[in-house]
Structure formats: structure tokens, C-alpha cells
Amino acid sequence: MQELVDLQKTFFNTNATKDISFRIAQLKKMQSLLKANEEVLHRAIYADFKKSAFENYTAELSLLYHDIQQAIKKVKKWSAVKRVKTNLVNFPAKSYIIPEPLGATLIIGAWNYPYQLSLAPAIAAIAAGNTVILKPSELPVHTSNAMAKLINENFDPSFFKVVEGGVPETSALLKQAFDKIFFTGSVQVGKIVYQAAAKNLIPVTLELGGKSPAIITENCDLKVSVKRLIWAKFLNAGQTCIAPDYVVVHTSKKAEFLALAKKEIEASNFLIEADNYVQIINQKNLERLLALIDKDKVFYGGNHDIENRLLSPTIMTDITFEDKVMQDEIFGPILPVLEYDNLDGILQQIKSRPKPLSCYVFTNDKKTKQKVLNEISFGGGAINDALMHITNSHMGFGGVGESGIGSYHGEYGFKTFSHYKGVLDKPTWLEPNIKYYPHTNFKLKLIKLLFG
Ligand code: NAD
């Protein structure tokens, strides 16, 4: 691992990656490799957990293409030196900010959207002029292999290299003196990464998880709200970091909500019999999810197929914050439904828990919308929708508090992998001696007069 990091540092120090045309060429190469290998990539993700070609494109590759295209178009602008005002003390001088790459970066990916979560940070790192070592999640073995083959056969290891492996390999990587670590995964492992990075004072971005609430208020358009919510929850069999983890429904809407949710699931293709209903990533996770189901509280679903690692969309009702399913992030196709009749009360409950990665509020009432936005701190979210905010790279994407540190996508990704170097550039033709000894009363008066 150390040899590889040294190799990348040596390459970085040649300044090759500082050249914008080099970065654009690498991004174009990545784009054409992905396009030429869509079929191979789909076969791998299908083998791992039966993702359909439709979802492989819409929820993985299309986001990568968008980020690549945007970076190619904007990288020159993003990396331009920015002139800023100079303060009076420094007159006469110019001041500017130079965006510069951080250096050798490590990206650690999660398994649930294996291509997107590994390659989107890599795109940002490359656009910003860094070298990259990418460690995808080892759980979806076929996608990890596919990315390793694609990248390692086509990029120079001194610039971009995929290292496959699990805990031992990641632990060995975490001992190296990288210039940046970008991690996507659980809160628990996020803490391990943060501690390892602290030993070498390495800046980190942590894209973590948590329990993201969805609030169904009494003033929402229930039909379309349920349609959007059910899709967002059960896409990828609920294995989405920003999926609504649980829903709190106003008491007056509960019965209608449940009836519509059932109808919507049945109208969708989230069925364990369907060939494109995504599998649970492994047996361990399926067992973890099954243990969260309280049979007495199941309103709908609960069917499972152990051999094929499938769990049908499951709705549990009459849930309280004390239930087992409400203790940790679910990360699977189980939707607990809680009810409320006092908005302040439910917001207090949400606020007393770790800050979620996302929050969704379904309402047509402006005051309710403002109240939720004002009171709840969350990474990013949506009003009258769920999940779709991730597609808008103009907003950046990331968590807050326990759900993460930092953000990426679009220019936010570029910033995440850059240092902004502020430079004061002074001519030598004037050097007032006001700051120099002797420190007279007159000088002090003048300084006070000028600077307050
Ligand atoms: P995870 O934390 O188990 O694994 C993530 C990565 O860390 C993997 O590459 C894994 O190999 C590595 N890893 C695991 N244990 C390690 C250890 N002890 N030391 C060093 N490295 C280790 O997470 P996961 O199961 O892959 O993903 C699920 C979690 O990720 C959920 O909490 C989900 O919310 C979160 N997530 C967040 C985002 C986001 O963008 N914020 C996206 C997807 C997933």
C-alpha cells in the first residue's frame, strides 16, 4: 500500500494533474469506458443483487455521466484563480485565491449503489487534479471486480488505481499518509476512518447514514405523496442511504395513507416474484432485517425468500420510537409508520435524535413547510418528494452531525477535493513604516483613526 501511495505522490509532484487538459482527458476516458462497458457493468450488478438494466442506468450510470459532463464543461471555470478585494492595511496589493488539488486521495465506497458511490467521488477528485486510490465495497464482489478491471486496465496506477478488499486491506490503506480521505458508509465505520485520518491530520469527507424521517401532514396531496414516498422507500429494496427510513403520519390521514400505500406497492413492481426486485445484499443483512419485523405490527408484506435473499415491501403500523425497528437505520424494505397529531411534539422527537441525512415533508401548507425547514437540521431533503434532491448537483449532497461531514457532486465535489490558497501579492515600490519600530503615539493614533 505504501509503495502505491508513494508512486501516486511522486506522480502528483510532477504537476501533470495540474494541467486542466490532462484532467479533461481523464474524465473523457472514464466517460467512454463506462459507455463502452454498460453491458458488462450491468451483468456484474445483476449478479450481485439483481439490479435491473433500467436501475443500473437511472440510479448509477446516469448520475456518473452527469457529473462527468458537468466537470468537463466547468473544470476550467472552477479551477480559475479568483481575484478578491484587498484590505486597506495591505494597500497597494492584489489578492487572489488559487484552487489547488490536495494530492493523493483515498476513496472508500459503500455497496448499495456500488458504481455511483465509488466513481462519483473519483470524478470529483480527478476534476480537482488529484490522484486516486479507490477501494470499493467488497460485498458486491462482481461490481468490485468490474471496476477494478475497468480502471486498472485503462489508467496508470500512479494516477488512478482500484484496490479491492475488505477490512484488512482498508485498514492497511488507512495507515497511509494520504492528502484526503473520502468515505461513504456507516456511522460506525465512519468513526474508525475519522480516527485513522486524525493520526496523520488528513482531511476527511464522511458520507454516512442514519434514520431519515418522512412527515405526512394533514395538508398534503396524499395520492401523489404516497406514490413518491413508496417509490423512494422501496427502490433498491430500501437499501438507499437517503430512503425515508420511517414515516410519521398525521392521525387524520393514517387510514387513507395505509390504504394508498398498499395499493401503490401492489401497482408497482416491488414484488419478490418480479425479476428486477433488488436482492438484500447478503444473508447477514437479511437476517438483521427479519429480526426487525414485529409480526403483530405488520400491516402489509413481510414475505421473504431466504434462499434468494428477498424481502417484500413491508409496512409496520402502530409503531413508537421505542420499537426495535426505530433504534437504528433500517436500510431495507421495511417502513414503520408512526402517527402524530401535534406537529411541535413530533418535531421535538425528531430533533432529540441524531441529525438525519435527509428529511422529507409532504405538505401544501407554507407555514408547516417553513416550520420543518427552520427547526430540523438534516443533510438535504425535499418538500413533497423524496430522494430526487440527489439528482440536483447544484445543491451539493452530504450529511450533518452524525449523518456526515462535507458534501459533493458538481462544484461541491470539486471544492471537497481542493484547497483554496489565498495569496497576497505586493509590489515593492511603497513601504510605509507605520508598523515598524519606533512605536510612537502618533502612529498609534493614525492606526486607530484608519482601522477603528
Ligand atoms: P460500511 O461502513 O459497512 O462499509 C463501507 C466501507 O467501509 C466498505 O468499503 C468496507 O469495506 C469498509 N469497512 C467496513 N468495515 C471496516 C473497518 N472495520 N475498517 C475499515 N474499513 C471498513 O457501510 P456499507 O454497509 O457499505 O453501507 C451502508 C451504510 O452506508 C449505511 O449506513 C448507509 O446509510 C451509508 N451510506 C451512506 C451514503 C451517503 O452518501 N451518505 C451512501 C450510501 C450508503
From TrEMBL:
Keyword terms of this UniProt record = NAD, Oxidoreductase
Tell me a Gene Ontology molecular-function term this record carries. aldehyde dehydrogenase (NAD+) activity
Asked if the Swiss-Prot or TrEMBL record annotates the protein with the keyword Kinase, the reply is no
Annotated Gene Ontology cellular components are: cytoplasm
Q: Where is the active site?
A: E207, C241
> Which PROSITE patterns does the protein's record reference?
ALDEHYDE_DEHYDR_CYS, ALDEHYDE_DEHYDR_GLU
Q: Which residues form a coiled coil?
A: none
Record Gene3D superfamilies: Aldehyde Dehydrogenase, Chain A, domain 1 (3.40.605.10), Aldehyde Dehydrogenase, Chain A, domain 2 (3.40.309.10)
Residues annotated as domain Aldehyde dehydrogenase:
14-422
Family indicated by similarity: Belongs to the aldehyde dehydrogenase family.
What is the protein name for this chain?
Aldehyde dehydrogenase
Q: Which organism is it from?
A: Arenibacter nanhaiticus
